[in-house]
Amino acid sequence: MAAAMELRCWGADWGLPSVHSESLIVQAYVKFSGAKVTVVPVDWTWKTLTATVPELLCGDSAVQEPINILNYLRKQRFNADYDLTARQGADTMAYIALLEEKLRPALLHTFWVDAENYANLTRPWFASRSPFPLNFLVPSQHASAALSRILLTKGEAPLHGIAEVEGKIYSDAKECLNLLSYRLGSENYFFGNLPTSLDAFVFGSVAPLCKASLPSSPLQSHLRQLGNLTSFCDNILAVYFSPDRPGPPPPVQDTMDANLQKLTQLVNKESNLIEKMDDNLRSSPQHKPHRPDPKPSLAREQSSTPA
Amino acid sequence: MTLVAEAFVSQMAAAEPWPESATLYQPLKEDQILLSDCASSLAVQAYLRMCGLPVQVVCRANAEYMSPSGKIPFIHVGNQVVSELGPIVQFTKAKGNSLSDGLDDVQRAEMKAYMELVNNMLLTAELYIQWCDDATAAEISRPRYSSPYSWPLSNILAYQKQWEVRRKMNAVGWGGKTLEQVYEDVNQCCQALSQRLGTQPYFFNKQPTELDALVFGHLFTILTTRLTSTELAERIKSYSNLLSFCRRVEQTYFEDKSS
């Protein structure tokens, strides 16, 4: 029904489908909602300078910014938030605002402003993925945009320099990571058993920090202490982005006790979900999602495995 | 402030009780103060009243320049000066008054998230409407902002402030938005708040927290301020539980104030 959709984003590295935070958010949401989108990396093209990344092209229209792209996909009936209650939808908005205000400045600082990280990791990576002569322009353009964003939003430029706001943004970011960790608890995803747009946002923001080999980052060491956030990222990578499995497969069956407990919980929740889905189908709401339906097959597979 | 200085200040703050002579500074109420500053100031006043801490409100034309961070409002307590709701909440906590002690970790995470939602959406929308919308900027914001000063200083200051705010809007990606989109964002934010509040008296059931103070400050100011169009107030009025929330907080905490 829809024209072929194309997503322009930065390329893959460090074990992630994309190193760019915003591109990663959109790619994760695309996988969660089952949308048919071809991913076109802008590496080594002139689009690194001219295009705003990430960008979704569908027919004649081009959509930019992760929030707008997610809204557009929802309108095309690729909706990963279909099962959320109104209150959970409100919570999603609030947590996304928290990520934007508290975590984003510190992430920008870690990758683009911190001298050691920028010189050793970020600039070489982006410069190596841009064609000559853009490799001189693109990284510094991003870096100055990041610096001005941090100063304008967090400090009273030109009164404060970057040194004064550094301490504050890092402590805010650590607090934000702690809050996300409390909210996630021991679950796989933030709302129930299936990932939603909030999971996409958190994954996109946290995964680069988790996986990049940063020379100096107190924030990264703080994140590594929060075990549930790192396993959240690893779980999504394993389930949705591993190369040998094309779609969302059933969770990997380990023989460890903790996973077995989780499985039994999942089985119970799954049967409730099936009942709810049945009701939904019977009452036939306005917008049905196009996501391929793994729920009945999941339940059937899992009911045969517990010991 | 650096982290070390902050820790030092909270140590000193914890040493003394809240004095009677605490004052809150804001720009002149009748002529100068703008929507966003008035909202922040009302939020802080509501928070202090909810804590039961007395504070006198003093209006000064140069309040913005007196503030340590350049933002309104700021309070002068004993020999310390603290500005903005976040640091003020921490300051009062160091003195032993806190509204959010009874919350568990997940609830506290939710509270902080919703406070950021209000800051991210409502405050930014207020700033946008005041300074990036040409009609409002020319008729209301610039004249009011520069009213205590004479020409040519008034022109210079007003345009400087407008330029600063527009730069900030561009940096956060709001520069390209139209007024309609901004109203729609405010609508979504209010919808989220309304759904979170539901039928409870306060956001975290029986007791008000700093989130309630912040939401009250913004919503009440928007509802009672006259702008070039009533669109913004209309959007909020469509959520009846938010209206009754504002009325409840006003009656409970601001009854004796003759406004």
TrEMBL record, chain A:
Residues 274-307 are annotated as: Disordered. One of its GO terms (biological process) is protein transport. Its main location: mitochondrion. The keyword Endoplasmic reticulum does not apply. Residues 23-141 form the Mitochondrial outer membrane transport complex Sam37/metaxin N-terminal domain. It is found in: Mitochondrion outer membrane. Keywords: Membrane, Mitochondrion, Mitochondrion outer membrane, Protein transport, Transport. It comes from the Eukaryota. Pfam families: GST_C_6, Tom37. Residues 173-236 form the Metaxin glutathione S-transferase domain. One of its GO terms (cellular component) is SAM complex. CDD domains: GST_C_Metaxin1_3 (cd03212), GST_N_Metaxin1_like (cd03078). The keyword Lipoprotein does not apply. Belongs to the metaxin family. PANTHER family: METAXIN RELATED (PTHR12289), METAXIN-3 (PTHR12289:SF30). This is Metaxin. It comes from Liparis tanakae. The gene is mtx3.
Automatic annotation (TrEMBL), chain B:
It comes from the Eukaryota. InterPro entries: Glutathione-S-Trfase_C_sf (IPR036282), Glutathione_S-Trfase (IPR040079), Metaxin_GST (IPR033468), Mito_Protein_Transport_Metaxin (IPR050931), Thioredoxin-like_fold (IPR012336). Residues 40-135 form the Thioredoxin-like fold domain. It is found in: Mitochondrion outer membrane. GO terms for biological process: mitochondrion organization; protein transport. GO terms for cellular component: SAM complex. CDD domains: GST_C_Metaxin2 (cd03211), GST_N_Metaxin2 (cd03079). Residues 187-249 form the Metaxin glutathione S-transferase domain. The keyword Nucleus does not apply. It holds the Pfam family GST_C_6. Keywords: Acetylation, Membrane, Mitochondrion, Mitochondrion outer membrane, Protein transport, Transport. The keyword Protease does not apply. Involved in transport of proteins into the mitochondrion. Belongs to the metaxin family. Interacts with MTX1/metaxin-1. Associates with the mitochondrial contact site and cristae organizing system (MICOS) complex, composed of at least MICOS10/MIC10, CHCHD3/MIC19, CHCHD6/MIC25, APOOL/MIC27, IMMT/MIC60, APOO/MIC23/MIC26 and QIL1/MIC13. This complex was also known under the names MINOS or MitOS complex. The MICOS complex associates with mitochondrial outer membrane proteins SAMM50, MTX1 and MTX2 (together described as components of the mitochondrial outer membrane sorting assembly machinery (SAM) complex) and DNAJC11, mitochondrial inner membrane protein TMEM11 and with HSPA9. PANTHER family: METAXIN RELATED (PTHR12289), METAXIN-2 (PTHR12289:SF38). This is Metaxin-2. The gene is MTX2.
